[in-house]
Structure formats: structure tokens, C-alpha cells
Amino acid sequence: MTLFNDKTANLSRRRLLKGMGACAALPLLGGLFPKSALANAISTALDQFTTLVPAQKGILTGAHWGAFEAIVEDGRMVRVQPVADDPAPNDLIDMAPYQVHAKNRIKYPMVRKSWLEHGPGASPELRGADEWVRVSWDQAIDLVAGEIKRVQSQFGPQAIHAGSYGWKSVGLFHNSRTLLHRLMNLSGGFTGYAGDYSTGAAQVIMSHVMGSIEVYEQQTAWPNVVEHAELVVLWGVNAQVTLKNSWNMPDHEGQAGFQALKEKGTRVISIDPVYNETAKLLGAEWLAPNAYTDVAMMLGVAHSLYSAKKHDQAFLDRYTSGFDQFLDYLLGKTDGQPKSAEWAAAICGVEAGQITQLALDMAAKRTMIMAGWGMQRQHHGEQPNWMLVTLAAMLGQIGLPGGGFGFSYHYSSGGSPTAKGGILSGISAGDAPKNSPAPIPVARIADCLANPGKTIDFNGRKVTYPDIKLVYVAGGNPFHHHQDTNNLLQAWRRPETVIVHEPYWTATAKHADIVLPVTTSYERNDLEMGGDYSQRYVFPMHQCVPPQFEARNDFDIFRAVAAKLGMEEAYTEGKDETLWLKQMYDAMALQARGAKVALPPFTMFWESNNYVRFPVPEANKQWIRHGDFRENPLLNPLGTPSGKIEIFSNTIARMGYADCAGHAKWFEPKEWKQGPAAAQYPLSLNTSHPTQRLHSQLDNTPLRDKFAVADREAIMIHPDDAKARGIADGDLVRAFNDRGQILVGALISKDVRPGVVRICEGAWFDPAEPGKVGALCKNGNVNCLTFDEGSSSLAQGNCGHMAQLQIEKFAGTAPANTAHAVPANA
Ligand code: PGD
């Protein structure tokens, strides 16, 4: 099948070429060659230009879950096939047709009735429960532009929260959040956010300890790990699940890496309250600590190492600072409590003998500790990362082949060797106006909305919350991602106006005042890199189908708002989609040329429906994280004040926080098995990322058939805990605590430690009584149960991975699940 021979694709091509017509120097080569001949000719000449022919069947595009060809028939996307380069195609891509043609697409611009009739601030308690009124695009744009103008002039930029945290879709031009920030920067500024929900605690603590955030940094390359690591310790990692998706388009090389470990037979130990999918794949040994007690366990390992004199004193002397201060704590000199294996065992529930053996095994072998991020999404979440680095430093293998630690092997294929070529940059948010408001820590949003004027600590500074009047969301889903949904529901009533751009009727859209329907990424043209760390691919994202119903691109919505505000030219810089894409491609191709990698001109690239695969230099396959630091710490110091690994940080100690000391330490979390809440709520919650979804995305697709139990989100319960409550596999269960209650379906399994239950994040919030605080969520949104506090005064990260709760078999008639229903008259 040749490309563009269906009506829709022709439309896409015409629009694109029309745009190019404005660019006089560009020859329209697309019309001169038969598609496959052109593609073949270019790929023969340029190795890095990868032809899909003859396997080519559809239109090349992609998503967070992979690059694929979309097959379109009669204007509908009907199926997809992965690109041949993908070593581990992800079944999530099969959902693309269901994304486009979802029943709960937002069809038209809609406004909440009370807001429309009575203006900003009207009946905010009806958010989520009010009627909706359809309006024209012209009216919608007027309302949005009017609100921005009103709030800017009456209250100033700090009154607009347009941080708009979220995973949106891939595509570097149609980047909803950046596009929003661009408009806001041009129109006077806004309150943004600092950090993120993924790694809020880790980013801050690692900057102090390692001088880099570590969580989004390249890891020791997989070929090096596979060759040299003798023992891999997975500490709170379920890479098989999280590697399915990436921030950019995934290259899925991480999954290939784990597969290679398996084939080699490398010993793997998984430390996790759940015997997870990755542990199963690798046949890993399993150590199951009590939930939220990893720091105590790590301290026990460190104490065992020190007692057996197996720590690497030479490494500590040369590459770290402050070990002696930590040692006083480890040995109990500062608090009278040695952090022995026995002490740790009483907290973490792993036997002292196993803790000691783990220490000896790690010291005896070349050990790579791969850590996940769930541990740091907890109260005192700074400590697991700091303690893990401290432990790795005591082992002395940081910077050696196959040894040390890595905080990103489970994310976007960290360790996939970096290619040589060019990097695409997307549209920019532009410069923030002078005196723009200071950002708030991202996960403090509900606290900020509810408590204007409140001052909190944040990484050595003070942050005072502004009085937010307007919330603008484009590309995120706070009613899924934020902790303590009922608290958010109340805080969400404080602003006068909430505007949401969404393709679907998510809970966030349902709780807005103005909802604008946007295209999915399959309804527009874009470009994206493939492989976040490898930067190996450049993928075109061709428009596959026309915009559905009245959906518009975020860019076009913001352009129209900018026009109303008298700043369209500044917003677009006179360029349409085509010219933006061409400019992005050309800048990338220039970089590639500098790296001696030739690429075809944009028109050829775009017309050929192919992608670019950059070469990977052999040296990069053996790259070792912190290898240069190890080789010469004077010439290659870390970015810390001492230039070394800061086992003790004077900077943090000087902040004087009660909840984060100058070295890694065990702090009891607000809620845990031995805490006061446990008497009433004895079970500890684990909120893993889902296997069949990306956060809340794709919850509204047939993937549900693979994971839903009793038509709800599943809860994994140990047989002993289920039996004690008379719960059978497949039963409908009410999970609850003082903050909320949700319906979930029982999945009984010995893969979870007794006393721990697993409910994945991402189920859409579906209150039985919309607008009522504390109503039963009928779909199982786990954040109804989590608490909304900062990890500590240092990072103010979220604590989404912890909560104590109780469960019971649900009595009565099961209410219908309406999470994916469209509001009446919408
Ligand atoms: P998504 O489901 O990806 O979740 O939270 P996030 O808000 O990022 O939401 C993205 C939304 O953007 C979707 O509703 C989607 O439809 C919409 N969207 C997609 N494309 C476009 C577009 O082009 N334009 C517009 N306007 N909208 C678009 C994720 C967050 O959740 C993260 S990153 C983490 S790590 C946290 N994880 C947990 C956790 O593990 N446990 C708990 N308890 N809570 C968590 N919350 C956090």
C-alpha cells in the first residue's frame, strides 16, 4: 500500500504541502517520485534513514507506548502495527484506534451552567455535579481570553496557576503544556511548579548528594552491565511494566537489556513487598520488606558491611565526604541505637540473617543496584535515595564496569547507549516576564489552592502560596495524579475559574468550568525523538485521521486566544504547523551534520513516511556512569560543594529541618504498619504503576478487560488477609480510611507480602455522589486513600505510595461504574 492513498492522509499531505508553499526554497519532491522508490533511494544512500518498505502498511506515527504504523480505512483508524526496529513491541499501541474513536471524546466546547449564567466563582461546590452547556468555539475563545485578561489585570500573574503538570501526548510541537506556558508568558506570566510527581524527593536530595539529579540521567550502558555485573539488586523496581512507556517514544532497549540479563543467567535479587512482573521474568530471589521500611533495611545492610569490615574505606576516603558523621549514627553513637541487622529486621520484617547475607553477597560480587522511584514517593522519600547512594559508596563500586547504582534503569530505557546524530527541540515556552511569580512545589497544589498566604519550607527557601483565582490545565489529570482526592475536591472549589483542554471526559474535565475539546496526537502532524536516553530515532508523526467532532489542536486554541489578546503574531511567530516542523527538523539535521551524519531534506523525510535511526558509537555501548569521576575526581568532580559524594551534607544540615538531617536517616513515616493509624487501618498500600495503562491514559479503552476485576480497579491481597475478612477472588471490595473510600475487585495472590495490598494508580475518579466530599469512588481511584503532605521540608515531594487502610467485602448491590460515561447533555 502506498502512503497517502486514503482520503485522510491526502488531506494531511495537502495541508502540509500547502504550508510548505510559503517556504519558497523548498522543492516539492514528494510529487516527483513514487513513494517506495524515493524511500528506497534515500535509505540506500543514507544508512541512518530507515525505510519501512516493503513491510509498510500504514501511516507512521506513535505514542508514549511506541512508534507504529496506523492503518486507516474510510477515515477511521482500524489497527496498527509496530515499527520493525522495536525489540519489544508494546500491546498498548493496539489501543490507538480506541483512543481516536473513544465513546467519551469531548465533542464540543462546553461550559458549566452556573459559571456561564452567573460568572466566575459561581457555585463552585457544583463542580463535578453541575449541568453542561454547549457553546460555539467563538464564544469559548472569548470566555477564555476574557478570563485571562480579567485575572491578570485584577489580581496579577500569581493568581493564574497554569503549571499544568501532566504526561500529555508525545510530539514536540503539539506539546500542550509548553504551548500553554507560551501563551501565559506572553500575556503577563503565571504561577508554575517546581519538580514533578515522579521524582519530587529524589531530584532535590540527589542534587545535594551527587551534584546531579540522577533520576533522569544516562545510566551505565546495558551492554556493559550485562557483561560485567555479577549480581543485580532490584530495589523497588518493576521495570517490565514501567519500561513499556517512555516520555518520548520508547526504543524499548531497556526491556532488551533485562532479557539479556535473563539469558546470561545473572543472579538477581528483588527487594519489594510484591513479587512483581520483573522479578518473575528474571526468576529473581525475593526479599519482601514491610512497606515503607527500605531505609531501615539499607541501614541494616550498611551496618553488616561495616561490622564485617567489607566496606571499601579507600573509596570512601577518596570519593566521599562526611562518612564519619554518618558512621556515628550507624553505630548508634549519636542516638544510642546501633542500626544492626537485628534492629533493621524488627522494622522491615526481613530476617537479620538475610540482611547480613545480602551485605556479604553485594560486597563479594560486582553489584549493580537498580532502584525505582516508588520508595521516594513517600513520607521522608529523600532518605531511601540518600541511603542507597551511601550504601553503594560503602561497597565502593560506583564508576566501575557493571557496578554501582542506577536510578533510571526502569524509566524510558536508561542505559540504552546514546546515539550520534541530532536532537529535536520542540516549540519553546518563551521567556518568562520579569518578576514572574515563584513556582510552588508541584505536589503542593491543593494546599496552595486552599491556603493562600501560607508559607512553607522548600529546599532551604520559603515559599508563600499565592491566591489562585484561575486554574488552567492542558495535558494532565490532577483528579487522578494528586493525592487525597477528597481534599483536592474541596481545594478545587477555591479558584473562580477552571479551564481544561482534554480529548476525553476525564474526572478533571468533569470538574472544570470551561472544557475545550482537543485532538489526539493522531489527528495532527508532529515530530518526536525515539529513545529518551539513546536519542536514536527521529519519528515523524503523520496525521492519520481528521480532527474528531469539533476538536482542535491545543496550538490552534491558544493561537485563537492569543489573537483575542492581540498577540497572535508573537505567539505563532508567523509560522503554521508545517513551518514549525520544518524548522525543528532543519535545526536537528544541522546538528546531525555537525556530527557527520547526513539526513535527507525535510520534504523528502516527511513525504517518505520513514524514520531516522542514528548510529550508536561502540564506545557509548561501554559508557559507565561516574566512570570519569572515579578515574580522576579532581579533574572530574561532582557538582556538589565538596566535589565528592556527600554522605553528610553541610548544606542540608544548615537548613536545620527536623524532618531531614545532614545524613541519611531512618524516620518513621506518618503512616505505616507500626504507626498509630495501623490499629484502625492495618493494611499498607502499594500504588504501583499499572501494566495496562500509562497513569490514567487508556483507562477508557478495552485494555480494562485485561486488568479490571468485578469491573473495577484490582486490589492484590494476600490469601491470609483475604481469608481473615471473608474475601474471595473476584469479590467486590470496599477499601477505605479516614480520607476516602473506593470500590475495587479482589485479586488474591501470594505475590504480595501479608499486610500489604497493591492497587495501581490511574483509575479515573468516579464518585457515587458527584460533588460530595468523601463519596464512594466506584472505579477505584487509589488517590482517594493517600495523604497529601510533602515528603519533608526539603523536597516537598508527594507521598502517593503510602497509606494505611482497611478493606471489607462490599455488601449490597454493586453500583454501576460510570467513570467513562459522558455527562448528561454533553
Ligand atoms: P496522565 O494519565 O498521563 O497522568 O499524572 P498525569 O496527570 O500526567 O494524564 C494526562 C492527561 O493528558 C490525560 O487525561 C490525557 O487524556 C491528556 N492528554 C493527552 N494528550 C493531550 C493533548 O495533546 N492535549 C491535551 N490538552 N491533553 C492531552 C501522572 C502522575 O501521577 C505521575 S507522572 C506520577 S509518577 C505519579 N504516580 C503516582 C503513583 O505512583 N501513585 C499515586 N498514588 N499517585 C501518582 N500520581 C502521579
TrEMBL record:
Top-level enzyme category: oxidoreductase
Know the name of this protein?
A: trimethylamine-N-oxide reductase
Q: Report the Pfam families cross-referenced here.
A: Molybdopterin, Molybdopterin_N, Molydop_binding
Residues forming the Molybdopterin oxidoreductase domain are: 105-563
Q: Which residues form the Molybdopterin dinucleotide-binding domain?
A: 683-798
Secretion signal: which residues? 1-39
Q: Which GO terms describe its molecular function?
A: trimethylamine-N-oxide reductase (cytochrome c) activity
In which organism is this protein found? Aeromonas bivalvium
Task: Outline the extent of the Molybdopterin oxidoreductase N-terminal domain.
Answer: 61-101
What is the E.C. number? 1.7.2.3
| Keyword tags | Metal-binding, Molybdenum, Oxidoreductase, Periplasm, Signal
Co-factor requirement: Mo-bis(molybdopterin guanine dinucleotide)
NCBIfam families from the entry?
bisC_fam, PRK15102.1
List localization entries.
Periplasm
Write down the Gene3D superfamilies for this protein, in alphabetical order.
2.40.40.20, 3.40.50.740, Dimethylsulfoxide Reductase, domain 2 (3.40.228.10), Dimethylsulfoxide Reductase, domain 3 (3.90.55.10)
Q: Which family does it belong to?
A: Belongs to the prokaryotic molybdopterin-containing oxidoreductase family.
